[in-house]
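Q: Sequence in, structure out?
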Amino acid sequence: MTPEFLRRYYILRIVSNPKVYGIEKNGYVPLEDLQRALDQLRADNIDDPLYEKLNQFSQKTIKRDLNKIKSYYKTVILHKRNYGYHLEEYELSDALKEVYEKTELYLLQHHAHYWKEHVTTARSSLSPNVDLVPLIQAIEQQILVEISYSGWYDDNGFETIEGFFQPLHIKEVNKAWYLIAHNTKYGIYEFCLDKRIKSLTVSKHKAKKPIAFHPKTHFKNVIGILKANIKPEWIHIQVANHHFKYLESNPMHHSQQVVVQPKQLDTESLDYDNPDMWGEIKIFVEPNYEFLMEVLKYNLWVKVVSPLHIKDYVKEHIESMLAYYN
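A: Exactly. Output:
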């Protein structure tokens, strides 16, 4: 991240949500208010070089920044005379929300030392043998990496996997980092970047026949990281009202759709025998191990109702768990 990127990011944030920055002008941000907000951000981080260009905000500079924002974020900021700046579209796109989230997480990490008394973050299992920055550069440049990976039983029966792979993508799932990589022997393989990684070295060799990888397509029908090549299907899940709201805000999967809202969204008591307390969603996924883990983590607040063979699959695991306590 550069100081110029951060200035453009904050211009976009201020214009898209001015009330957060104390600007209440019917959705418009006058130039002087924009400058004042940027000045305050700079003052709050006066010793941080990352923020050193926030107060470079002449009209010429901002005009150039708006063109960059349009190019990078596909977002148009307009100016209305005597009112100020505003977004062309009122609703933020999903792509822009993703930019916001990733930048805020980066800034949180950037300030972690100073904010440690105020923020607790999840502990990651990332191996000290892995340096993400050169690994990301290897993905961009299609450079081979040499990997030595001692798997656990669930990976490949304790087999040690060694060789050169084309790195394709890095994904974080449940506090664990994974590298998706490819070679001719193993095909596309998911390496967990924890202590199973014995060594990971970026080579000087480019992939001779690089393959294309599209993460949205690859992970389209799975929850998490694993593809078991099970046929995806619509799975219907009933959800208790107090958790229905949570799953509306935090979907199980991007395919999630609401089938039926609970007739009673708010109830004083949690009577799970009350049919009006239950709503229903559906998701289109592979019913694999990670799907099962996702369902089980919601405890008695969700229940799979169809298809029958998936309902039985979940029921079988719950009965096996119950047998431990009999």
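The first helix runs from residue 3 to 16.
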